[in-house]
């Protein structure tokens, strides 16, 4: 609910996590809070069901700082294309309430609730419109679909695997 260009209410209300991922992101950015225009910031509330996942995704225009409010999250990001003779290093941590983790701009990252109870986190992003690209949705759920030859070669899997993945409904928790 919006009262003016500088106020947004409702982040105290848990989001509905009864979906395939078991998570939901409630974004606050310039698109739903015009008062953020030119401020270079936005935020989100992320709710997780037990074992819920905020799937691998990236924010092309922002660094993200995540603070856990409830529950226990396994979080991480992958350093991609680091250079010759280097691997795509995975950085992970288990976070409990009050813990903070930073996801650098453009890095593929994720959060998984590893607890038997719900989890809640808040994130701050260094852009008024950080954008989000969910990896599985973009790669296997594009419309029209990416040519299976491209994906079989890129992922080194058989065409039947690509066909199966492209036939799935890719849930968007944003």
Automatic annotation (TrEMBL):
Chain sites annotated for binding oxalate: 54, 59, 64
Residue ranges of every copy of the Cupin type-1 domain listed in the record: 9-163
Keyword field: Apoplast, Disulfide bond, Manganese, Metal-binding, Secreted
Cellular location(s): Secreted, Extracellular space, Apoplast
GO molecular function: manganese ion binding
Cellular component, GO annotation: apoplast
Binding site for Mn(2+): 57, 59, 64, 109
UniProt xrefs under Pfam families: Cupin_1 (PF00190)
Family recorded in the similarity comment: Belongs to the germin family.
PANTHER family: GERMIN-LIKE PROTEIN SUBFAMILY 3 MEMBER 3
Name of protein: Germin-like protein
